[in-house]
Amino acid sequence: MNVLGIESSCDETSVALLSGEVLKANLISSQDFHTKYGGVVPELSSRAHLQIIIPLVKDALSKSQIKLNEIDVIAATAGPGLIGALLVGLTFAKGLAYSLNKPFVPVNHIEGHLFSGFLMEEKPEFPFLAIVVSGGHTLLLLVKSFTDIKKLGSTVDDAAGEAFDKVAKMLGLGYPGGPKIQKAAALGDKYKIDFPVAELKDFYNFSFSGLKTSVLRFIQKEYGEASKIPQTDLYDIAASFQHAVIRAILGKTHKALKNYAVNSISLVGGVAANKELRESLAELAGKQKKKIVIPSIEFCGDNAAMIAFRGSKLFEAGKTSGLQYSPFPGLSKQHFA
Question: Looking at the predicted structure, is the pLDDT value of residue 7 above 60?
Answer without folding.
Answer: yes
